[in-house]
Write a structure and sequence with these properties.
The protein is mainly alpha-helical and about 70 residues long. It contains 4 helices and no strands.
Amino acid sequence: MTANPILLQKKYARIIEHFSEKENLSLDEALRFFYHSTVYRLISEGVSDLHCMSDEYLVEELAFEYRRT
């Protein structure tokens, strides 16, 4: 299943904003990390309908990936 591109962009914006707050990063830093992350790649490729997961879940996954780098 593929997501509506406009809705997906809005979801990305929410995830980046929450990730920025959670990890005390600037929006630029959070944006840069997000678009180079495995989480972004999986969402954009439609793997396992990951885009259907809650924003909170995806922020946690992104934060986990961030802490591992």
